Amino acid sequence: MIAEDVFVAYIRKAMPDSEVSLVDKTGMMDHFRVRIVSEAFAGKNLLDRHRLVQQSLDEPMKDGRIHALEIKAHTPEEFATL
Amino acid sequence: MENLIEEEIKKEIKENKILIYGKGSKMMPMCGFTKETIEFFDRYGYPFELIDVLRNMEKRETLSKMTNWPTLPKVFIDGEFYGDTDILDEMATKGEIEPLLKKAFAPAE
Known about the structure:
- The structure holds 2 protein chains of 2 kinds.
- By secondary structure, chain A is of the alpha+beta class.
- Chain A has a single domain (4-80), classed as 2-Layer Sandwich (GMP Synthetase, Chain A, domain 3).
- Chain A has 4 helices and 3 strands.
- A 3-stranded mixed beta sheet of chain A has the order 1-2-3.
- The radius of gyration of chain A is 12 Å and the shape is globular.
- The N and C termini of chain A lie far apart (31 Å).
- By secondary structure, chain B is α+β, with helices and mostly antiparallel strands.
- Chain B has a single domain (2-105), classed as 3-Layer(aba) Sandwich (Glutaredoxin), CATH 3.40.30.
- In chain B, 48% of the residues lie in helices and 14% in strands.
- Chain B has helices spanning 4-15, 32-42, 57-67, 85-93, 97-105; strands at residues 18-22, 49-52, 74-77, 80-81.
């Protein structure tokens, strides 16, 4: 169980410019779909983008506050064309 | 000295064109994501191997260290690491999976 603002704070620590939108998939606040838009993803392939997000959430994933995470990671330019 | 588990993993990756490290078995997946990954590859009809590491913490840690990827399932195609269905689904929408699997199973010229 993790609150949205805590979740976003973790991501912003690693990617200060990021726009984060969070969907609680099961109503238990531990299975999430998150969409992150940040310049930090520029030039990174899919795997490395996911690694970057996982590293920023390493603590809450390790202690189980986040059980499952579906990640969508885009740069602002990509997001504008979606 | 590369530890034994790393050698075991490298051998498994080489021996299986499509290899999933996950929780449970094909008949009895113990986690929704492992089940999702099985269903993903069922759609393509190529043979794949699922290795259950649910209770093998040491192997799981070695895998996470080798791939710099903390979660299960972990998918390897043709010896390359591809994360999980998060990555595979996005690749599938761009039509990148079919050619990748075709190449993996193509007889060596």
